[in-house]
Design goal:
Length: about 280
């Protein structure tokens, strides 16, 4: 499932062809993906100008001049593909239609945006922009890890007294929005904290020190275009390459990269997910 860096990379790729541009025609080729599409979605998108393109957690939000926002969730295999941009951001000509091209946006500029999703775990919805935080997918989300509300005092307070492992706590979208398995593993490694430690029993100073580490891991991944482990591609079709910089994720049995550490990366299962860490230098 794409995590925050992958979604943010896609958002940045879409921004030049969506923000400030009008949708000349929207085409919806099936009634649903993970959930049914909203009623008359094609008609409600056609002719609308995209005022802003934002990200909330792992969702992309396109604010329209109609007062609605288009919510996009990529799911496990969803891709936003851009072609035919006359402004020169994308050099690809329009490709022949594919079986899993479920939603197509023809922009007035000549650009075409295709939502392709073979597994159909993605989703799209339309919601009132002014009341978006009440939407069922957004209502319970915690602060953005790259935003001002996610600071040292907040995280120390949010984790105080919690008996769950720190890995599970950081994956809880109610505590912090957008973090996923890969980047929590990487952040805990950089902070030298074991994913098995109980969140509420970690010293406040160590919890506070996690905040800048989490931010830097995410920024490094965004700069690298995200991580392409299976399906993720940027809006121009390129793969991300942060997976080549993983310190622990997917490196079970490899030597720890911490200077002077003779440990070996171990994999354990937590809440049905793989956690990778060095048991020697992560305490």
């Amino acid at each position: 499932m794409p995590e925050l860096p992958e979604v943010e990379t896609v958002r940045r790729g879409l921004a030049p062809v969506m923000e400030g541009h009008r949708i000349a025609r929207a085409q919806v080729n099936r009634p649903d993906l993970r959930w049914p599409f909203p009623r008359d979605m094609a008609a409600r998108l056609t002719g609308r100008r995209v005022e802003a393109l934002r990200r909330r957690s792992k969702y992309i939000l396109a604010d329209l001049d109609s007062g609605e926002s288009l919510l996009i969730h990529l799911g496990m295999s969803g891709r936003m593909q851009v072609s035919g941009d006359p402004l020169g951001h994308f050099a690809h000509a329009h490709a022949a239609p594919e079986k899993h091209d479920h939603v197509i946006l023809e922009m007035e500029s000549g650009a075409r945006i295709i939502f392709n999703d073979p597994r159909r775990f993605g989703a799209m919805d339309l919601l009132p922009t002014a009341n978006q935080e009440a939407h069922k997918l957004l209502a319970s989300l915690g602060p953005e890890p790259l935003g001002n509300a996610f600071d040292e005092l907040y995280l120390v307070s949010a984790l105080r007294g919690r008996g769950t492992p720190i890995k599970s706590a950081l994956l809880d979208q109610r505590i912090v929005a957008g973090l996923g398995n890969i980047y929590v593993c990487e952040a805990l490694y950089r902070a030298r904290i074991s994913p098995r430690r109980r969140a509420g029993r970690i010293a406040a100073a160590r919890v506070a020190a996690l905040v800048p580490v989490i931010r830097q891991v995410l920024l490094d991944a965004i700069d690298a275009g995200g991580s392409s482990l299976r399906d993720h591609r940027q809006a121009n079709g390129d793969l991300g390459y942060f997976q080549h910089s993983f310190d622990v994720y997917g490196r079970e049995g490899s030597a720890c990269r911490t200077e002077g550490c003779a440990g070996t990366v171990r994999r354990i299962t937590q809440s049905a997910r793989s956690s990778f860490y060095c048991p020697r230098c992560q305490r």
